[in-house]
Amino acid sequence: MTLTGQTSTRKMIYWGSHYLMIAAFVIFALFPLYWLLKVSVTPNDILYTEGVRMWPSRTTWENYAFVLTQSNFPKYFLNSVIVSGTTAIVTTLVAALTGYAFSRFAFRGKVIIVALMLITQMFPLVMLIAPIFKILAPLGLTDSLTGLIIVYTAFNVPFATFLMQSFFDGIPKDLEEAAMIDGNTRFEAFRAIILPLTLPGVAATLGFVFTAAWSELLFALMLVSSESASTFPVGLLSFVSKFSVDFGQMMAAGVLALIPACLFFLLIQRYLVQGLTAGAVKG
Amino acid sequence: MTTVTQTGKLPAERRGGFSKKLSGIIEPYLYVSPALVLIIAVMLMPLILGLSYAFRDIRILNPFSGGFVGTAHFEALISDQAFLGALANTAWWTFGSLLFQFGLGLILALLLNRQFLGRRMVQALVFLPWAVPTFLSGLNWAWMFNPVVGPLPHWMTSLGLMAEPFNILSDPDLAMWGPIIANIWFGIPFFAITMLAALQSIPKELYEAASIDGATTRQQFISITLPFLAPTIAITLMLRTIWIANFADLIVVMTNGGPADSTQIVASYIFTQAFRRLDFGYASAIAAVLLVLLLAYALSVIALRRAMTHADS
Amino acid sequence: MASIQIANARKSYGAVDVLHGIDLNISDGEFIVLVGPSGCGKSTLLRMIAGLEDITSGDISIAGNVVNDLQPKDRDIAMVFQSYALYPHMSVAENMSYALTLRKTAKEKISDAISGVAEILGLTALLERRPKALSGGQRQRVAMGRAIVRKPQAFLFDEPLSNLDARLREQMRTEIRKLHHRLGATSVYVTHDQIEAMTMADRIVAMHDGIIQQVGSPVEIYDKPANIFVASFIGSPAMNFLKGSYEISDDNGAGVRLSDGALVPVLQAQNAQNNQAVTLGSRPEHISIVSDADNGLPAKVELIEPMGLSTLVHVTLAGKPIKIFTMDRPNYPVDSFIHIAFDMAKAHVFDTSSEQRLPPTTEPHSGHKD
User: What is the location of CATH 3.40.50.300 in chain C?
Assistant: First the structure.
C-alpha cells in the first residue's frame, strides 16, 4: 500500500510539474499576442494612461473600423495575399520537382546542387538587395508584385526542397515503379501517384512558405516604391513614419495581418512535425 | 498485347530506345532546372555582383562613385571600431539567442512528446510565435519593454530585478537582452518542431528494453534520447547559428543598433551602411567578411563532427 | 503470351559488376524461378526485364523483339512487388483498373475484366475497400489481381510471398501455381526461398554472385546439382560436405578418403584423377544409421532433433558436423557413438578447387547450361 501510495504521489508531482511547465510555455507564447490584441482595442485617449493595465476600462472597435475603411490597408492586404499565395504555390511546385529528384535520382552534380542550396542559406540577404534591384530594374520587375514573387520564390526554394524531399523519402519507390509498369511515364507516375500521397507534405510546405512570404519586410520595402504594389508589412511601417504614430491603428492592422498567417500555420504545424519525422526515420 | 510485336520491328523503335537512355540521363536535370535557374538568377548572380561591389566605390548619392578601389574597403574595416564592436555583439546576440532557443525548445519538445490531455491544442498554440511576422513581434516586444505602455518593467520591479521601472532598450548595458528575448520567443518553436520530430522517430522498443534492463528515466534520457537526437541537434544548431547571425530584423525594428551601437550586430551594420549611409561598396565588403566567417564556421563544425564520428568508430 | 530471351546481359554500377553476361531463354508459358541468396543479382535481372533498370550491355527480348530501349510501360509486362505496391489512395477496384484506364480501355470491358478476376481471387466483396483496410493476404491477392487483369505478355514476381506468414505463404504458393495452369502465362518469379523454387518452378535458375550457376527442372537441380553452391543452397536441411581425396581401387571401384583416414565408397566419377582433392556431398536422407560396425563409420551423436514426420540426428564425423535424416524415432544419448553409412549411388563428388560436380561415369553427359 505504502509503495503504491508513494508512486502515485510521485506520479502526481510529475504530472503536476509537467502541466505547470506546459502552462508556462503557453503563457510565454501567447502573452505578447494578447498584448497586441489589448492595445488594438484600447481607445486612443487612454492608451498611455492605462498603458500597463491588463485590460482597459473601455474598449473600442474604432481602430479596426478605421484600418478597414479609411486606410489603404485592404489594398496592402490583397497585395500580400496575392504575393504570399502565389509564392507559396510556385515555390511548392518547384520544390516538389527538385525534392523528388533529390529523393529518387542519383545524378552527376547532385552534391554540388545540394551544397549550393545549403550555401544560399548562409547569405546575408541584405547584401543581395542592391544587386537584385540592378538585375530586376531593366526587366521592369521592380515596383511590381511579380518581381517580389520571383525573389521570394528563389529565397524559399532551398528549404522547401529539403522539406519536400523528406516527405518523398517516406514514400516507397515501388509505387511509382508499379505505376510505370502499369503504363505511366515517370513524370505521370509522379503526378498521379506520388504527389497525391504527399499532400500533407505539400500542405506543410505551402504553409511554411506562405508565412515566410507574409512576414517579409526588407525586400518588400526596397523593391517596391508605389503604394499600389505595397504589401502589408510595408503598409504597417507607414503608420510609424507618418507624423503621428497611431499605435492603436497599427496594432489593429497587425492583428488583422496575423489572422491568415496564424490560420495557415495552425492547419499545417502537425504535418510539419510528421514530415520531419518521416525524413528522420530514413536519414 | 500485340503492340510490342508490331512496333518493335520498326527501326523507329530503336531510335526511341536511344532516347530512353538519353532521357534517363537528362530526366533528373529537368526536375531540378526550375529551382536551379531561380537560385542562380536571384541568388548566385546577385551574390557575385555584390561581392564585386566590395572592391568598388559605390555610393548611391555620389555620381562620381563607381570606380575600382581594390582592397581599400577591407583596409578601412580593420580599423573600424564600430565594425569590431558589431563583431563582438554578433557573437553575443547569436549564442545568447541560440542557447535559450535550443534549451527551451528541447524542453518543450520533451514535454510535447508525452501523451496528455489537450496535447494537440497546446502544440498548435506554442508553435504560434513562429507564424508571427518578425517585425510585428519586434514592434510588439519593444512596446512591452516600454514602462509607459508595457507590463514587463513593472513586473521586473515587483520581482526586485529593477529598482524602478525603466526601458532596458535604452540602457546600453542591457539593451541587447530586448531583441534576444524577442528572438527566443520567436525561435523556440523551430527547435521544438525539429526536436519533436526527431524524438518521435526514436523506436519505442529501445525505451522498453532499457527499462527492462533497469535504467532510470534519467539514464534512459542520457543513453538513448540524447545519442539519438545528437545528429539533429548538431545540424540544426549549425544552420540556426548561421541564420541568427544573419538575422537583423528584430534589432533594426527594436533598437536600430542603439543605444550607442550597443546592439549593433554585423548584419544590422550592413543594413545601416547600405540604406542609411547609402555606401553599398563598404556594406558589401562587410557582408563579404561575414559570409567568409560563416562559411569558415560551418566548415569547421562539419570537420569537427567528421573527426568526432571517426574517433567513435 | 510470349517467350523471353536474355542474351549476354550485363549490369554494372560504375566499376561494380552486378550481373556478368546472363544468357537465358524462357519459353512461352513457362514458369521460371530465379533463386539465390540476397545480392546474387536475381532481383536486378528481373528489374531489367521489367525495364526498371537499364541494361549495361547485351539484349533482352520479349516475343522476339529487343526491348532494351523500351520504357517499362511499353513492354506489356505486369509485376507483383514484394511490398505489393498498391496505390494507397485508390480502392481495390481502382488499383486493378489503373493500367486498363491508362490504355483507354472501354469502361464496360474494364468492369467485366475486374469482376472476372475478382471472382477468381475471391476479392469481389473487397472491391470498394482501400488497401489500408485489407489484411496482408488480401493485399497480396489484389497485387496479383492487378497483374492478371491486364493479360500481359509476361508476369514478373519479385519475392511476392515473403511478407506473409508461413501458412498463408504455403496457400498462396499453391494458388499461384493453379493460376499459372489456368492462365498459362509466361512467368518469372524471384525468391530466396528454395522451397518456393522447388515447388513452383517449371525450371529453376540458380544464381550466385551475378552468374547463373545452373538451369534445370527442380528434380534435376536437386538430384544433379552442378556445383557445391547449388548443392548447398537447394535442399533443407542442407547437403553434408566432407573434404577428402579421390581414390581409385584395383577393382575399378572408387572412394573418397576422409581426413581421419576413413574411406567412403562412391561411384566412379568422370574425369577424376587418383588423389585429386575432392569434396564428398551427401544429402541427410542419403546417409543411414547402421547397427553393424563393419559397414559403417563411427560418428559421435551431438543432438537429436525431432521434426514430427522425421528425426534429424546431428553427429560429428572426421571432426565435421553431419546431419542425418531418419524416419525412425532414435533416442541415442548425446556423446554416444553410432555407425553411419553413405548411400553410394546418391553421393556426389565435387572437385574441391573448381567446386564443380564430377558426375559418375554411369551418368550421360548433359549440358544443363542453356
Answer: 4-231
pLDDT band at B75 (very low <50, low <70, confident <90, very high): confident
Same structural domain, B179 and B34: no
| Residues C32, C205 contacting (CB under 8 angstroms) | yes
Q: The domain containing residue A28 runs over which residues?
A: 2-40
Averaged pLDDT, C183-209:
93
φ and ψ at C350, to 5 degrees?
A: -115, 145
Pick C85's closest partner by Cβ from A172, A183, A196.
Answer: A172
Q: Count the domains in chain B.
A: 2
Rounded Cα distance, C288 and C106, in Å: 65
Domain identity same for B248 and B163: yes
Residue B69 covered by a domain: no
Same domain, residue pair A135 and A271: yes
Chain C, nearest residue to A177 by Cα: C52
What pLDDT score was predicted for residue C155?
Answer: 94
Consecutive H or E run containing C312: strand C311-317
CATH topology of domain C239-351: OB fold (Dihydrolipoamide Acetyltransferase, E2P) (2.40.50)
Cα–Cα distance list, B271 to A126, A218, B252, B274, C347 (Å): 6, 10, 8, 5, 88
pLDDT at A283: 32
From the list B27, B126, B198, the residue facing A280 with the nearest CB is: B198
How high is the ipTM of this complex? 0.83
With respect to residue B66, please indicate whether it lies within any of the assigned structural domains: no
CB contact set of A235 (below 8 Å; sequence gap of 6+): A71, A72, A73, A76, A253
d(CA A156, CA A27): 31
How many residue pairs bridge chain B and chain C with CB atoms within 8 Å of each other? 42
Return the beta strands (E) in C99-147 as ranges. Answer: none
User: Across the interface, do C65 and B1 touch by the CB < 8 Å criterion?
Assistant: no
Q: Is the CB of A174 less than 8 angstroms away from the CB of C73?
A: no
Residues A88 and A33 in one domain: no
In this structure, what C-alpha cell is assigned to residue C116? 472476372
- Looking at the fold, whether B29 and B81 belong to one and the same domain comes out as no
Note whether A246 and A116 are same-domain residues: yes
What are the angstrom distances between the C-alpha of B61 and each of A226, B49, B68?
21, 19, 17
Are residues A126 and A78 part of one domain?
yes
Does one domain contain both A136 and A183? yes
**Cα separation, A153 vs B37, whole angstroms:** 11
Structure confidence by residue, pLDDT tens digits, A33-88: 999 898 888 888 887 777 778 888 888 888 888 888 888 888 888 999 999 999 99
**Residue of A204, A193, A185, A248 whose CA lies nearest to A46:** A248
Q: Give the residue among A119, C103, C92 at the shortest CA–CA distance from B47.
A: A119
A267 touches chain B (CB under 8 A): no
The Cβ of residue A100 has, within 10 Å, a number of other Cβ atoms equal to 26
Backbone angles phi, psi at C154, to 5 degrees: -155, 155
For residues A258 and A33, give the distance between their C-alpha atoms in angstroms, rounded to a whole number. Answer: 9
Strand partners, C157: C80, C189
**A181–C72 C-beta distance less than 8 A:** yes
DSSP letter (8 states) at residue B259: S
Characterise C41 by phi-psi region: left (phi > 0), alpha (psi -120 to 50), beta (else). Answer: left
> Which amino acid appears at position A31 of this protein?
F
Structural domain harbouring B170? 76-312
| Number of domains forming the structure of chain A | 2
Subunits with at least 3 CB pairs below 8 A relative to chain B? A, C
Best A171, A181, A195 residue to mutate vs chain C (most C CBs within 10 Å): A181
Q: Helix, strand or coil for residue C24?
A: strand
C4-231 belongs to which CATH class?
Answer: alpha beta
Predicted confidence at residue B206, as pLDDT, reads 86
Omega cis (within 30) before C152: no
Tens of pLDDT, residues B270-303: 888 887 778 888 888 998 899 889 889 888 888 8
Cβ of B35 within 8 Å of Cβ of A98? The answer is: yes
